[in-house]
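Chain A, query sequence.
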Amino acid sequence: MRRWGPELLAALLLLHSAVAVAAGIPDDKITIGIMNTGAGPVLLRTAHGLVTAAQMAAEDFDAGAAKLDTEIEEFDSGNTRDAAGTVRDWLDRDHLAAVIDVAGGSAATEIASLLRARNRTYLVIDKGEPGLAAAVAGPTTVLWGADPAALARSLVHVLVGQRLRAWYIVAGAGPLSQAVADDAGRFLLAAGGSIAGRADQAAAAPDFRAELRQADAAAAQVIALAATGPEFDAAASESAWLGLAARHRMAALFAPLDRIDRIGLQAGQGMLVAAPFYWNRDAASRAFTDRFRNAERQRMPTGTEAEIYAAATALLDAAAAAHSIAADKVIAALRRGPISDRLLGTVTVRPDGVAMHDISVYRVKRPDESEQRWDDLAPVATVPAAVAFPPTTP
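Chain A, predicted structure.
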């Protein structure tokens, strides 16, 4: 029988340990990078909250049964270094497991390519940049969260189901507003509805009165506002001033809660909106909101921050289940079965890399219905994930 010397045994044990680390989780620590490579005032305003949401997910994971450490890395969007260079440093220095990114532009494409080459996971929160999904698609990428198209699809589903099929679309001049208007029109026609008309702003300006008067004069059951940011504020406020809600059902195709708060319930009452997350939906949403506000100087969480929390939680659970930070193993674990998320409900990661979940449609409350600030929405319907998200790519 062959006997091994102590030096050879020690070398074999060291080699076995190195292989185990390479195949598993180095140093028993899962490191996630949080980035905000997208553009625009909505994204920049919430950048710090994205990290807070991810840290909350890490705290909840640490409190669980897994015997693993976690680390959340933050990309400083004001740093002069490029985003891809930061990711490369994380990969080389910190055994990075994944990047979660509110993504946009060429930076997202570069990061997707870099992570694909290193077999690390890229969870992308898509907020509607045209062409982004196709640019970052690949075996190591998951599109996570409700993009504006999913929100528009949900509103179309609910309103057409109420036999409100004739729509007039009022669109802002910005590229996101135009894209949302285009999506809504396509979804409406596919659902059997009709477009009574569409008015687009020729240039960005806080005045929609001419376009709204055209909509009011048309034979439309629904006036849909495809406007974002300050454009939405102006369009919604002027709709209220013209009294359009008394003659038409008003729908906002892209209206986060902070915009509803900004225009006020007097202007927004009766309007329908779609959202993946609402702070007062249930006990879990309220508990998340309380924790987030305590960490963020009483700022309310957005749907994007809820999606970051859900993505980080799912990533950590999947890496622990796979006992690996390799993207092929992590994504296989994400796809293995429905994910039960405390904020978004049941999440399913499809073979094409799209994470889908139900979307809720809400009505903006009347002022006399609201019990406190931010108590702005009343539930109308829940749209199934298969309806809210586009079909699997052939």
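The first strand starts at residue 29 and ends at 35. Residues 39 and 104 are 7 Å apart (CA to CA).
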